[in-house]
Amino acid sequence: MIHKLWTKNFTAIIAANTLMATAFNALIITLPPYLSGSLKMSQSSIGIIMSVFAVSALLARPVAGHLNDNYSRFPIFLTALGLMTGLYVLYPLVSSFAALIGIRLLHGAFWGASTITTSTITADIAPARRRGEGIGIYGVTVPLATGIGGLIGVQLMDRAGTQAMFIVIVLISASAWLIGYWGRLPLKPYKKKIFDFKTLLHGKALPVSLTVFLLTFVFGAVIIYGKQYAMQNNFTASGYFFLVLSAAFILSRVMLGKLFDRGKVTLLITIGLVATTAGMIGLGCAGSDAAFLASGLIMGFGFGTILPTCQAKVNHIVFPHERGAANSTYFMAYDIGMGASGLLVGVLSEHFSFSRIYLACPVMLLLAAVVFYGKAIPHYKRHAAFMKQAPMDTTVQD
What we know:
Number of helices: 13
CATH topology: Growth Hormone, Chain: A
Number of domains: 1
Helix content: over 70%
Shape: globular
Oligomer: single chain
Structural class: mainly alpha
Distance between the termini: 23 Å
CATH architecture: Up-down Bundle
Order of helices and strands: HHHHHHHHHHHHH
Radius of gyration: 20 Å
Largest sheet: none
C-alpha cells in the first residue's frame, strides 16, 4: 500500500501555513524596532505589547481545540486567517499604546485559532505510517517562515520603510488565505461533545508541553529581540541571521526528520538540546557578523530538531478525536513561553545587555533537559507503546 504524503490538501495546508507564518514573523521581528524607533515607546511598553498577544492566544487555543474536535476544521482556519489578515491593515494606522494592545489581543486570538487548526488538519491528512514525517514537515514551516519573514521584514523596513513593509505583510497573509481555500476538504458531520473545561487540555500532552514552555522562552528571546540585539552590537546582518536560522532548521529536518518514525526520540532530543545550548552561548559571546550568523546556524539546527519532535510526540500518543485538545495544550505552552519571554526580556533589557540575557538562557535549557529525561520521554514511550496496540488510524478529517 502506498502512503502518499504530498497530496493536494497536504501541499495546500503546508503552503498556507508557511505564508501565514511568514506574515506573522515579518511583523513580530520588526514590531519592536518599529515601536521604539517610529513611535518612541520604552522597552517596558514594548515588552507589554509583545507579550499581551500571548494572553489572548492562550485563551483562544483551548476554545479552538474544542471547536476543532466538534466542527469542520477548514472553515475555522479560513475564518481566523481572514480576520487576522484584516488586522494587519490596522497596525500602521494606530499609534497609541491602548489601541496597539487591543489589536495585539485580537491578533493573538486569531493566530491561536489558526495554528491549532492547521496543526490538527496536518495530523489528520498525513498517512498514519508517515504522521511523524508529516508533522515534522509542518513543524518546519514556522521556522522557515521566521527566516523568510524576518529577511523580508527587515529588508523592507530598512530599505523601503514601514508602510511598504505593512503592505507586503497584508499581501502575504491574503495569499495564504487563497491557497488555504484552494486546498480545503469537503465538510463532514462531527459527533459533537458538550463544552467542558476539562476537555480543553489533554493530560497526555502536559509533560512535553512543559518542556516546550522552557524552550520557547529561549526561542522567543531570540526571535522577538534578535534585531534589537543586532542593533545594540552594530551587527549589519540581522535580516540574514533569521534566514540562516531557518535554513538550519530545514537542514535538521532533512538530515534527521525520519528518525522520529524510527523511534529515535531520545537521540533527537539530545541533539537538539546540545545544539541549542551551544548556539545560545555563541550568540551571547558574538563579537562580529560572522559569529552572529554562525550562532544562528547552530541554534537553528537545535530548535529545528527539538520543536518538531515535541509536536510529533504530542500527536503520536492521542487518538484522532483528541488531537484538537492535544495541540491546544502544546501551543498554549508555546504561547506562554513566547509571551513570558517577550515581557521579561523586554524589562530586563532596560537593565542588562542582550548579550548577558542570552548567556543566561542556557539555564532554561538545562531545566528543559531535566524535565525531558526525567518525565517527558518516559511518559511518551509508555503511551506510544499503548498506541501501537490500538487499531491503525486511517481516517481523514477536515
